[in-house]
């Protein structure tokens, strides 16, 4: 069965964006090195970040995001981010008017439908769920196996929280990965079930 990973770049104080959805400097680490992370020529990271991030990106088959993230990214123009095969969008609304029905995007109503569809599409590969409100719903429902954070040395003070609106305690194992890159600290925790 596919592993479900909750993931995002995050400020030291736990925010993935400001209230207005501006990520500020959270993605600067993706352009702070010498090693090309993908074929775009834009993303260049430290060797340590590349050695950690590239294999992880290669194992992701499906990304799950909420409708808000889909809307603010314009659905990544119909091309899933980071070379992912499919995107499952949790939404009570249908795809936007004029949306290409051939794009590898699947609109579902609710987290149970999302995790089922994502696992079906993943074929045993990793399912990534975006941190924030949707990710917190997956965590609360017991669907998250692992939490990955790219911690960036900035303090936001307020904004959109990595763990969204989690209302209960969730125990994680000790971090099994702690890697320092340029302008980022990569952390990975397994979730206690």
Automatic annotation (TrEMBL):
Transmembrane segments: none annotated. InterPro entries: DHFR-like_dom_sf (IPR024072), RibDG_C (IPR002734). GO terms for molecular function: 5-amino-6-(5-phosphoribosylamino)uracil reductase activity. The lineage of its organism: Bacteria, Bacillati, Actinomycetota, Actinomycetes, Geodermatophilales. It comes from Geodermatophilus africanus. It holds the Pfam family RibD_C. Residues 3-172 form the Bacterial bifunctional deaminase-reductase C-terminal domain. GO terms for biological process: riboflavin biosynthetic process. Gene3D superfamilies: Dihydrofolate Reductase, subunit A (3.40.430.10). This is Dihydrofolate reductase.
């Amino acid at each position: 069965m596919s592993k479900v990973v909750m993931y995002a770049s995050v400020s030291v104080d736990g925010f993935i964006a400001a209230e207005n959805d501006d990520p500020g400097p959270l993605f600067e680490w993706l352009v702070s090195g010498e090693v090309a992370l993908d074929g775009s020529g834009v993303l260049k990271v430290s060797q340590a970040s590349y050695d950690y991030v590239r294999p992880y990106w290669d194992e992701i088959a499906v990304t799950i995001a909420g409708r808000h993230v889909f809307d603010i990214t314009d659905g990544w123009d119909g091309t899933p981010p980071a070379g992912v095969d499919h995107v499952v969008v949790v939404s009570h609304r249908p795809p936007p008017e004029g949306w290409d029905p051939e794009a590898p995007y699947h609109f579902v109503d609710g987290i149970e439908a999302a995790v089922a569809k994502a696992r079906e599409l993943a074929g045993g590969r990793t399912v990534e769920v975006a941190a924030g409100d949707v990710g917190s719903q997956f965590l609360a429902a017991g669907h998250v196996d692992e939490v990955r954070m790219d911690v960036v040395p900035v303090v936001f003070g307020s904004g959109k929280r990595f763990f969204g609106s989690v209302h209960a305690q969730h125990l994680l194992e000790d971090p099994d990965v702690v890697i320092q890159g340029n302008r980022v600290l990569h952390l990975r925790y397994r979730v206690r079930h």
